[in-house]
């Protein structure tokens, strides 16, 4: 192998190595669970295992709810448990307003499905939110019909 070819191979290898080490952007992750058509029972929570791109960053976690025109309420009450790696539970109650006073659905959507998003926590390290467990907490409603999907959206803080 000639000296020029060896030099060229070394330069190409160095460039490939350096490009692999560049900081890649941290992406937003969304995970959804389809709920039974028969309804979401209060006794059956939905559990998520958030995915993080970078263990050194902090993240925000939001809930996304998809519902149909057949949803019978203007609000949605949820209990959210954010469980840390050391099994510490941070419990919060989340109240979502899905329709205005005139019955118009808030949130985005088309056809008969709508999606609303509400922040749950921000500035958490991945070890502070290893799992997220969500319970429907509508009073007097053991089985909640019309909620089609429940999801979490993980976003790096500041983005």
What does this structure look like?
The protein is about 10% helix and about 45% strand. It has one helix at about 5-20; strands spanning about 30-35, 40, 45-50, 60-70, 75-85, 90-95, 110, 115-125, 130-135, 145, 145-155. The strands form 3 sheets. The chain has a 5-stranded antiparallel sheet with strand order 1-11-4-8-7, with no helix packed on it. The longest helix has 18 residues, at about 5-20. It starts with a helix and ends with a strand.
What does this entry show, briefly?
The protein has 159 residues and is mainly beta.
- The structure class reads mainly beta
Count all strands and give the number: 11
- The proportion of residues in beta strands is over 45%
What is the radius of gyration?
Answer: 22 Å
Shape: globular
In whole angstroms, the N-to-C terminal distance is: 49 Å
Helix fraction?
10-25%
Strand order of the largest sheet: 1-11-4-8-7
List the uncertain runs: 18-25
Largest sheet: 5 strands, antiparallel
Number of helices: 1
Mean pLDDT: 88
Strand and helix layout:
Layout lengths: L2 H18 L8 E6 L5 E2 L4 E3 L10 E10 L6 E9 L5 E9 L10 E3 L2 E12 L6 E6 L6 E2 L2 E10 L3
């Amino acid at each position: 192998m000639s000296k020029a070819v060896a030099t060229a191979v070394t330069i190409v290898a160095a460039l490939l190595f350096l490009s692999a080490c560049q900081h890649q952007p941290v992406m937003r992750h969304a995970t959804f669970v389809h709920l039974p058509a028969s309804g979401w029972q209060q006794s059956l929570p939905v559990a998520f295992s958030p995915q993080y791109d970078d263990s050194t960053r902090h993240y925000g976690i939001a809930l996304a709810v998809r519902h149909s025109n057949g949803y019978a309420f203007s609000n949605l009450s949820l209990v959210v448990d954010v469980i840390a790696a050391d099994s510490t539970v941070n419990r919060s109650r989340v109240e979502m307003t899905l329709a205005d006073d005139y019955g118009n659905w808030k949130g985005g959507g088309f056809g008969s499905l709508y999606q609303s998003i509400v922040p749950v926590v921000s500035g958490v390290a991945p070890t502070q939110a290893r799992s997220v467990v969500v319970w429907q907490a509508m009073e007097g409603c053991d089985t909640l019909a019309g909620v089609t999907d429940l999801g979490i959206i993980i976003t790096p803080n500041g983005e």
